[in-house]
Design brief:
single chain; 219 residues; 6-stranded antiparallel beta barrel; 11 strands; 36% strand; binds flavin mononucleotide; Pyridox_Oxase; Pyridoxamine_oxidase_dimer_C; Pyridox_Oxase_N
């Protein structure tokens, strides 16, 4: 058992990690793996399957694009953007916890993250919204995401209506913004021969603690 200090976060681990698993900051490790995936994946290297559950505990899952792995040694988060009134938005309002997994076929690796979820601040969400394509910004106004739609034509009429209302610089809709998953657990997985994969789980040493305990897991 060894103890090291990764920035402000202490790490306890049973085995020294090397190669693609090395490092004392799990956010930096996730960013490094994503940077590799950007070179090898044909499209959407930041796509994640995002799992939520409603108040009754029934799980739901869908893809979203991860837009930020925040720069922090100990208190970072995984950020995505969506409609607060969507199915996932409702589930996160009832039960603000989520899990996500990134899987890159080209690298044969996956990263898993679990934790409580909070909304991203207005300034950060405004900045991200402003960076999107104009038509995507208008689409966020027009789409009542996850609710029934009578026809494609009615959606396109709403798109035209919002484009006429906001010919330039649409403000961020009040129903659209970001969520941040604050990990209490992360897992880095890489494919091994004959299913003898390599897995390292990073877990907070105690609820609310900054320190991580890193453990190699059986495949
Ligand atoms: C690769 C990919 C990326 C996606 N990214 C997002 C996203 O970042 N935000 C979003 O709201 N929907 C995104 N979607 C659409 C969602 O998968 C989903 O259809 C939508 O958010 C409604 O989900 P819900 O009804 O569970 O709320 C993406 C779909 C795919 C296939």
């Amino acid at each position: 058992m060894s103890e090291t200090t990764g920035g402000t976060a202490r790490i306890t681990e049973s085995e020294t990690r090397s190669g693609i698993f090395a490092g004392s900051d799990p956010y930096a490790l996730a960013r490094a793996w994503m940077a590799e995936a950007e070179k090898t994946e044909p499209n959407d290297p930041t796509a994640v399957a995002l799992a939520t559950a409603d108040a009754g505990g029934l799980p739901n899952v869908r893809m979203v694009l991860l837009k930020e792995v925040e720069e922090s040694l100990s208190e970072g988060g995984f950020v995505f953007y969506t409609n607060f009134e969507s199915a996932k938005g409702g589930e996160l309002a009832e039960n603000p916890q989520a899990a996500m997994v990134m899987h890159w076929k080209s690298l044969r690796r996956q990263v898993r993250v679990r934790g409580p979820v909070e909304r991203v601040g207005d300034a950060q969400a405004d900045a991200y919204y402003a960076s999107r394509a104009y038509k995507s910004r208008i689409g966020a106004w027009a789409s009542a995401q996850s609710r029934p739609l009578s026809s494609r034509a009615s959606l396109m009429a709403d798109v035209a209506g919002y484009a006429a209302r906001y010919p330039i610089n649409p403000p961020r809709p009040p129903h659209w913004g970001g969520f941040r998953i604050r990990p209490v657990e992360m897992e880095f997985w890489a494919d091994g021969e004959f299913r003898l994969h390599n897995r390292f789980r990073w877990r907070r040493e105690a609820p609310g603690a900054l320190a991580w305990a890193v453990q190699r897991l059986n495949p």
